[in-house]
Amino acid sequence: MFMEPGEFADRSALLAAIAVQGYEILERRLREAREQAPTAVRALSALIETYVAFARDHLAHIHLMLRGELARSACCGPLVMPAPGAWC
Question: Does the pTM exceed 0.85?
């Protein structure tokens, strides 16, 4: 996802887009980790390791993803979160 200058109405819209980008990256990595695990126990372990690695490697995304005010931003509408069970 490349962002063009002037593509966003304001700072909140830009930050919300970056947070969504983080969720997309995390979802893809969690899905890959789960699919590669041979058992449920190893899948759980892989999901935990993947989440921690993502948080360590993408600190800025995590900070934005965990900011509640972005999910309630009036200018941008709600953040689109993966449906429950999407990562399972």
Answer: no
